[in-house]
Every structure is written in structure tokens, then in C-alpha cells.
Amino acid sequence: MSQVVTLFKNVSWVTVSQIITNVCAFIWTVLIARYLGVTDYGILSFVISLVMIIGIGEDIGTTPYSIREISRDRDLTSKFLENILPLKWILSIILLIVTILAMYLFGYDPLVIEITFIMFLETIFMSFCNFLSGVFQAHENLKPSSLGLIICNVTLLLLTVIIIYLDLSLVAVAISYTLVYFIYFNYLYKYTIKDFGFPKYEFDLAFWKDTIIKSLPFGMTMIFYSIYFSIDVVMISWFAGDYATGLYNSAYKIISVFVAFYVIYQYVIYPLMSKLYTEDTNMLKISFEQSFKYSLLILLPIIIGVYFYSPYLIDLVYSSQYVLAAPAMQILIWTVVFLFINGVATSLLNSIGKEVSVTMIYLIAAMFNIVLNYLTIPVWSYMGASVTTVLSEMLIFILMLYSISKTEYKPDLSLLKTIVKLIICGIILSITLYLIKVSLWLAIPIGLIVYIFALFITGTIDDTDKYIINELLNR
Question: Does residue 15 belong to any structural domain of this protein?
């Protein structure tokens, strides 16, 4: 049980740093959206989604593969650092050149091409940051990347304020994104030299070949994941225009605040599961089941609250010009719970060597997402994309559970009973919020009390949970 307690202590520690960075990120996102307006914000959203999809090729799965291998054998750290870094430089430069040439050939607006070039540089630095963070992640050292993210987001917030004060252009906004990740990269690189020595670049072609082959399932998963998660913004831009793109992305940005905590948990649990696979398979199963339970337990009241108060939140955050984004947010918020649970399942399957199954799942989801977006966006615009995103996550959830059921880590019947109890708690909370119809600030304490009461009367909080709580409180 100490492994589980350690896991949640680490999650709590990282969460503190993420709260700081995500508050900053939320503020500068809102400021930029308000400053640029719906149309220019739609252009920026399109470019970000486009380069994020293409930018997957800068990594091709080497980061998650490296994390798993270093978690199992930390003596491999230097070998991966000295070979993956030069490999990523080569891939990044090739992709940058190809992307810009392709945009010229397809006749994109010069401003869009300029923004794409700048934002692509951001993805290059971001890719390196993700890899270096992954190395520290594999060593269960969360301090460097956490502090780096704080520096990154605080800096971007300050730059955003300066840009708005000086009334600069969309280009300046794009440059600010790239600049902060350049700073973050240099910060992590200095930490890497301090902890692991100066990386001496190697061009071990045999190692490159072996790593690329074994990384491809991870890379293909990342591509398919990014397609179904980002292609909606690109397709909305194509079929419905920049205004609809801005509305959709404004709703999505609020959802991404909660998604950020999914990233936190993945950051901690994946290397732990990889290590447990070689040390304690029983504890690995417990970690999976408890992670599943706590994800649903924590997220359910948040999702219900956002659903009921989305119009108020949109107006509060973005102003009345984004009011049409509220219905999209009411739909998109339901992706959060599936995203968390699917992420936990993905970590389990990757850690036990079932990454090919994960790749196939995300391939199916990406194809499903593209086809459904193609059918719904021309008819229902960004609302069609919202529904498609939720249905895609539900499909992944079903396929993930099916894959896990074929392994020794198949969840026990007790987990299904727990899910039913949590759904009952959610229904109780929903009925309460529907009936009382009070302001958001009054609904939060009332809803919290009702939900906690429901957890105890349904028996959702069991002896294992009480033990973990006592351990975390050092009782």
C-alpha cells in the first residue's frame, strides 16, 4: 500500500505546482482571447492545432518509449539522452521545411504562414522540453519540470500583459509562445547537465533504428490521438470559418483547465506503473483500479457543476461576445471524465507492453472522429464537433476496457459496483443543483456538502480509501 500512498503524495506535490501554472495559463488565455477577438483568436487556434498535429513527427513516440525503458533501467539514461536529442533536431528541421513549403504551395494567407512558422518553432522547443521532462519523470524527480512550467507560464502571462498594453499584433502573440518554451528548454537543459552530465551527441544508427521501430506504436498513438483531439479545430476552420473556430476553442480552453490535471496524473502514474510491472504486478492492478475510482470520484461533481453553470462561466471569463460557446462547453465537459479514465487505461496497457493495442484503439478513434466531424460540422458547425469529441472518448473507453479485460489486470466486479455508486451520487448532486437554482458561488459549498454526504450514505468511501486518507494525513 505504501506504493499507492507514495503515488498520491507525488500527485499532490505536483498538483500544487500545476495549480500555479494553470492559473497563469488560464489568465493569459482569457486575456489573449479577449484581446484578439473571435476571428483572430480563431486563426491562432487553427495554427496551434495544425502544428500540434504535424509536430508529433518531431518525436515519433521516442519520449514515452524512453520513459518506460529508463523507468525499468535507469542506467540507460545517458544512452537515450545522447542519441534522442540529435535525432529530434534532425526530424524537427525536416518537418519545419516541409510544412512551410506545403503551405506556400496550397496558397495559404501570408499571415497564416508567418504565424505557422513561429508556432512551429514553439513545437520544436516543446518537443525537447517534453523529452527532457520525461527523463526526469522516469527518475521520479518532479522538481525540474514543475518549476520550469511555473517559470514558463508566469513569463507568458507577463508577456501577454505587455503585448496588450503596447497594442501589438497577432505575430507578437505567437512570438511570445515560442519565446517562453525556448526559456523552458534552456532551463531543463541546464538541469539535465547538472544531474546527468553534459550530453555528448551520438549518431548510433543501430540504436536509432531499434528505438524508432520500438517507438513507432507510441508515435502512431500520439498521431492518432492528436488527430482526433485537434482535427476538429482544423475542420471547423475549413467548413465553418474563423468565427466558429474561435467560439469552439474558447469553450475548449476552459475544459483544458481540467485536462491539465489529467496531464499531472499521467506524469506521475506512467513511470510508476512501468516500474511496478517488473516489481509488483498485484500493486499495479491496485494502482489501476484506485486511479480509475478516484478519477471518477473527483471529476464527477466538477463536470456536473460546469454543465449547469456554463453560460455564467463563459460570460464571466470571456465576456458576452463568446456567449454562443456555452452550449458547446456543456457538451465538451463530459470528455474530461473519459479522458482521465482512458489515460489511466493507456498508462496500464503501455506499461505492460500492450502499446500496439493502444495504437489500434486510437487509430479507430481517429477514423471515427474524422468521419463524424466531416458529417456533422457542415450541418451543425462547432456543436457537431463537440458531440463528436464526446462520442470519440466514449468509443475509446469501451475499446480500452475490452483490451484490459483480455489481460490479467481485468477489473474486479467491485469496481463496477463502485462506478454505479458514483453515478448515483452524481444523480443526487444533479437533482439538487437543478432544484435549488442558486448562484455559482453558493452552489459550490452546497454541492460539495451534498456530494460528500452521498458518497458516505452509498458506501462509496471504503476501508481502503479511509486508510489512504489517514496515511496522507500522517495519522
Answer: yes
